[in-house]
């Protein structure tokens, strides 16, 4: 039986003879307006494709698939329906769907695992970098505190020297970074030496203030860095 004739038989079965889907012509399937038994109207309808288990009907607003198993026996025969081939085809389709679903599931699992590993690696790198920052700030703070302590000791020594020279003792011993060997001896009060030492103390005072501020700034930075590290460790 010619293909277009089989299409016409199907049209009669599906559409209660209200329309013919395809004409018996070599120019291909003609499009027709078809009314289904349900009352739904399909404009520009034609049979688009045939599979072992049914056919696809296309029309203006879409398409629909009709299984051979849903057709009367005489129309199944008209289209050469083979239940065994149909079952094999459907099983193959189901196997392909399950294989595809399994592949998608495995792919998603791999992607999720990769993302988890990347996230952990990223977090570990951030934690390591933050730990280095904390250690660096701790060292800088320790060095700054040491410099401040040294400056305060120098200021204390110079202020003590100024206190001794002011009472006019006969032998004055001044421990100071300046002068020959850091030690100046004088048998009488030396105004020039006193003035120079006072200026040095003023300079050291300013230096101490700057160093004290450096210590405060580093302490604040260290506290902030430690809070950040604690948060990273907590969220890891």
Topology:
Layout: H1 3-14, E1 32-35, E2 41-51, E3 54-59, E4 62-67, H2 73-78, H3 83-166, E5 172-175, E6 183-186, H4 191-235
What is the CATH architecture assignment of the largest domain? Orthogonal Bundle
Mean pLDDT: 77
What structural class results from the helix and strand content?
alpha+beta
What is the number of helices? 4
Largest sheet: 4 strands, antiparallel
Into which percentage range does the β-strand content fall? Answer: 5-15%
Shape: rod-shaped
Order of helices and strands: HEEEEHHEEH
CATH topology of the largest domain: Helix Hairpins
Helix proportion: 55-70%
- How many domains? The number is 2
CATH class (first level) name of the largest domain:
Mainly Alpha
Total strands: 6
* Low-pLDDT regions: 15-28, 164-189
Distance between the termini: 72 Å
Q: What radius of gyration results from the CA coordinates?
A: 49 Å
Task: Indicate the multimeric state.
Answer: single chain
In order across it, which strands form the biggest sheet? Answer: 1-2-3-4
Sum up the structure in keywords.
236 residues, alpha+beta, Helix Hairpins, 4-stranded antiparallel beta sheet, rod-shaped
Question: What would you note in describing this structure?
Answer:
- The chain is an alpha+beta fold.
- It folds into two domains: 3-81, no CATH class; 125-235, Helix Hairpins (Orthogonal Bundle), CATH 1.10.287.
- Helix content is 62%, strand content 15%.
- The strands form two sheets. It has a four-stranded antiparallel beta sheet, with no helix packed on it. Strands 5-6 form a two-stranded antiparallel ribbon.
- Strand 5 and strand 6 (183-186) form a beta hairpin.
- It is rod-shaped and about 135 Å long.
- The chain starts with a helix and ends with a helix.
- 12% of the residues are buried.
- Residues 15-28 and 164-189 have low confidence and may be disordered.
């Amino acid at each position: 039986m010619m293909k277009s004739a089989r299409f016409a038989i199907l049209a009669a079965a599906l559409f209660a003879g209200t329309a013919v889907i395809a004409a018996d012509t070599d120019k291909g399937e003609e499009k027709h307006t078809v009314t289904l038994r349900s009352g739904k109207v399909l404009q520009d309808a034609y049979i688009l494709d045939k599979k072992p288990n049914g056919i696809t009907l296309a029309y203006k607003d879409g398409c629909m698939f009709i299984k051979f198993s849903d057709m009367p026996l005489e129309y199944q025969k008209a289209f050469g329906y083979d239940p065994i081939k149909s079952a094999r085809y459907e099983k193959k389709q189901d196997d392909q769907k399950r294989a595809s679903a399994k592949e998608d599931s495995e792919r998603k699992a791999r992607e999720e695992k990769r993302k988890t590993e990347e996230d952990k690696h990223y977090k570990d790198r951030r934690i390591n970098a933050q730990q280095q920052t904390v250690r660096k700030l701790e060292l800088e703070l320790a060095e700054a505190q040491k410099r401040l302590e040294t400056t305060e000791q120098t200021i204390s020594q110079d202020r003590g020297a100024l206190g001794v020279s002011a009472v006019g003792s006969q032998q004055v011993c001044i421990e100071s970074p300046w002068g020959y060997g850091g030690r100046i001896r004088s048998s009488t009060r030396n105004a020039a030496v006193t003035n120079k030492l006072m200026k040095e103390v003023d300079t050291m005072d300013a230096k101490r203030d700057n160093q004290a501020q450096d210590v405060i700034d580093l302490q604040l930075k260290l506290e902030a860095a430690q809070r950040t590290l604690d948060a990273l460790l907590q969220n890891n």
